[in-house]
Inverse folding.
């Protein structure tokens, strides 16, 4: 392709620059794990279809593979500047395609032979060297996450088998029904890339120079992001009888206990627990969270489990919750548990700025996928005020504070799309929370909320950016599952951190110190999740661990009659991080203004 572009006298062609193939999620990098040649070509854009003019002084380099804008081996003839048109784009693309077709035609036998040889060698590697397999057992915290992970692998051409008998490997006995991913298969490299821990190859231009950032993320280990336990078999073993899994499914549970009980207990763990609540409320049931653990028939239901009063019309739905969502359900007689919180339907709004915002799109997808009703609100809706009359929850997507406040500058787009929240919008949000609403801020938007609301919180990670470097990695997260924000979650899990936040309560200037040395302002701040105290890095790249170790990652702050929930990292990262979806879900479920304590 580069040869054809050079032959056609197209200037400014650079190769092996800017992008890397480290992250496997690009359309041009995922094929690498499938033994396939993959290429990415991009051509400089114009103003939609109108020509642009670029002066030589505007031409820049300074990125990976092209430190200076001058002729070099991967950039033989720099473009000198001038007029750039849609015609130029088409001509460059046509030359690139002709080069690609020529190479594919000239070397088609070698390409096919190499594809075969790479697959054959992958199979041989899996037969003679470890790891030999990955195992996913059925006793998982979140059955929906397990199904999603396995379906992703199947869709990527990975073979999964389900065991028909117990087996032993590496000294561990695995039960019947475990799923095995044997690594003697052609796409061995792909499955290892998705399931194993990443240790990013750190590079610097000089020993004391700044680090070279990855083009995308440094760690993505899917089992950690999704909260799925995947065991590695390092030594050879004898697999039991197995059947091929062609479609991932949830391991169904049944309804245990009394057939006509006083109420059902539902072990509402994981993402399925949130779906169960939405379905029950939508069907007119009156589910409630139990605030304490409940023991029945030898099983302990953790705080945050559901209590559902019996009603015959609900029997099919309750049975479906057990089978389709894989949640333990038990019919129980006697009095309902004392301390519970009735769950209603929170009136939820998701703010969508006029400036482009990928995070809003991912959040919208997540709410739709897990059956949370919501409406979209724009700048004008917020600025008009009286928000609590219509909503219980407002979600701010991640964005730099200035983009949320200012939006598009005047004159760049039609007038109705200019401006952002502005001072009026911020005052309206404050009035909404003071009246009893819940404002949920995602990642970067927390900085705006802390500043605009004057919250007794500081972002330690932002204040100490010179000591902290973490470009898209997975860190250890400790939760308090006894608090509503942590209901249905594991005590320890993983957070996707990408230059994210770490919070610390502070006292307002001049505030007196209260009993025990705690400033009164900190009493209104509740911490639901903290970064681990040590050994934070689970996958990727982290420097300056001590800056955020043990710091708050998720806090809830009382403000007037309402609350602000600060989610300091992308809990819904690209729809992948099942392990932390519940933090957003619980912020919504715990905020319904109409809910009341059912145990009083």
């Amino acid at each position: 392709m580069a040869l054809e572009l050079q032959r056609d006298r197209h200037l400014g062609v650079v190769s092996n620059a800017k992008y890397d193939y480290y992250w496997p999620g690009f359309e041009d990098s995922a094929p690498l794990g499938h033994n396939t040649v993959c290429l990415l070509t991009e051509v400089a854009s114009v103003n939609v279809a109108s020509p642009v003019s670029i002066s030589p002084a505007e031409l820049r380099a300074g990125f990976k593979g092209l430190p200076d804008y001058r002729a070099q081996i991967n950039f033989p003839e720099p473009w000198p500047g001038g007029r750039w048109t849609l015609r130029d784009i088409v001509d460059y693309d046509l030359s690139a395609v002709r080069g690609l077709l020529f190479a594919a035609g000239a070397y088609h036998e070698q390409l096919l032979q190499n594809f075969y040889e790479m697959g054959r060698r992958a199979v041989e590697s899996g037969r003679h060297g470890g790891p030999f397999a990955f195992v996913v057992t059925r006793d998982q915290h979140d059955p929906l996450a397990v199904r999603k992970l396995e379906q992703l692998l199947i869709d990527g051409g990975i073979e999964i088998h389900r065991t028909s008998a117990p087996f032993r490997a590496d000294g561990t006995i695995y039960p019947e029904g475990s799923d095995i991913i044997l690594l003697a298969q052609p796409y061995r490299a792909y499955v290892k890339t998705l399931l194993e821990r990443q240790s990013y190859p750190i590079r610097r231009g000089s020993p004391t120079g700044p680090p070279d950032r990855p083009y995308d993320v440094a760690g993505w280990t899917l089992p950690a992001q999704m909260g799925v336990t995947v065991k590695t078999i390092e030594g050879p073993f004898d697999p039991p009888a197995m059947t091929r899994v062609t479609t991932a499914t949830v391991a169904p549970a049944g309804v245990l206990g009394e057939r006509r009980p006083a109420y059902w207990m539902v072990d509402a763990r994981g993402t399925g627990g949130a779906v169960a609540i939405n379905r029950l409320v939508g069907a007119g049931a009156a589910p409630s969270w139990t605030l304490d653990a409940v023991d029945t028939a030898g099983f302990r239901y953790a705080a945050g489990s559901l209590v559902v009063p019996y009603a015959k019309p609900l029997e099919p739905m309750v049975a479906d919750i057990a089978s389709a969502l894989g949640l333990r359900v038990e019919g129980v007689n006697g009095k309902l548990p004392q301390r519970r919180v009735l769950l209603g339907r929170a009136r939820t709004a998701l703010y969508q700025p006029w400036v482009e915002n990928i995070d809003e799109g991912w959040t919208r997808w997540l709410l739709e996928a897990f059956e949370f009703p919501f409406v979209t609100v724009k700048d004008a809706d917020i600025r008009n005020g009286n928000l609590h009359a219509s909503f219980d929850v407002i979600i701010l997507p991640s964005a730099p504070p200035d983009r949320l406040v200012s939006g598009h500058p005047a004159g760049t787009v039609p007038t109705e799309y200019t401006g952002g929240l502005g001072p009026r919008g911020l005052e309206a949000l404050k009035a909404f929370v003071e009246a009893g609403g819940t404002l949920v801020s995602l990642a970067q938007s927390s900085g705006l909320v802390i500043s605009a609301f004057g919250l007794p919180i500081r972002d330690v990670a932002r204040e100490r950016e010179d000591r902290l470097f973490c470009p898209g990695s997975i860190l250890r997260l400790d939760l308090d599952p006894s608090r509503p924000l942590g209901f249905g979650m594991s005590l320890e899990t993983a957070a996707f951190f990408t230059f994210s936040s770490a919070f610390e309560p502070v006292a307002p200037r001049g505030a007196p110190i209260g009993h025990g040395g705690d400033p009164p302002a900190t009493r209104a701040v509740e911490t639901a999740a903290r970064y681990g105290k040590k050994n934070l890095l689970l996958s990727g790249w982290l420097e300056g661990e001590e800056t955020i170790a043990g710091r708050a990652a998720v806090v809830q702050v009382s403000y007037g009659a309402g609350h602000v929930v600060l989610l300091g990292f992308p809990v819904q990262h690209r729809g992948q991080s099942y392990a932390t979806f519940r933090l957003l879900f619980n912020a919504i479920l715990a905020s319904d203004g109409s809910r009341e304590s059912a145990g009083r």
In short: The chain has four domains: 2-106, 127-200+212-245, 255-340, 348-459+501-529+552-589. The radius of gyration is 27 Å. The chain has 16 helices and 29 strands.
